[in-house]
Amino acid sequence: MVDAPRDEAVQSFPSIAAIDTCAVWNILSSRTLTTAAKGRCHFILAEYVRYECLVKPWKSPERADLRKKLSDELASEKHFTVHSLAIDDLRELAANVSKLGRFHRGELAALALARKLSSGFLTDDRTARKVGENTLGLGRVRTTPHLVGWLVYQGHLMDGDISTIIADNAVLNKRYGALGDFIQVCYEHAMGLRLLTR
To answer: pTM of this prediction?
Structure first.
C-alpha cells in the first residue's frame, strides 16, 4: 500500500527544478505528461545528468527515442536546459552524502544544482528524495508522481490522462518497477483536494 502524499506536495510545484536522470525519462516517456507540464515548470539538468542521458552508453536500445526527445527539448531550451556545476558545488554535498552507497552521481549532481540555484529538486529515487528533503527542505523536493498530482490539482490533466501516463511509465520501467501505484495515489489525493478547496 502506498501512503498519500503531503497536501502541499500536490498543491504546489517549483517553477524551476533540477532533475535527475530517472525523472527525465519518467517525464519524457509520456507524451501526455510532457505536454501537460510544458510552460508550467522548467527542468534543469546538471552537465553530468546530460551526460548520463545523452552520452553514456546504454544496454537497452529502446531508449533511443527518449534520447531524441531530450535532444529536441534541450535544443529548444523551452522546457529543459543544462547548467554547469563547479567542483566546489559538489564537494561539501558529496562529503555529507558519501556514506549513502545507493546515492548515484546523477542524483548528487541534480541535488547540488538545486542547492546552488535555490531551485526545486525532482527525483524518483527514494534515497535521493530523503537526502534532498534533509538538505533542501520538504517544500523543494518533488517526484514525478507529485508532478502528475499537481497537474491534476491545477486542472491540466484529466481523469482519462492518468491511465495513459501510468501505462507509458510501465513500458519504460518494466525492468526496474513502475511508478503506477504512486501516480494513482497522487492523482486521487489531488482530486480529493480539488473537491475540498474549489
So the answer is: 0.93
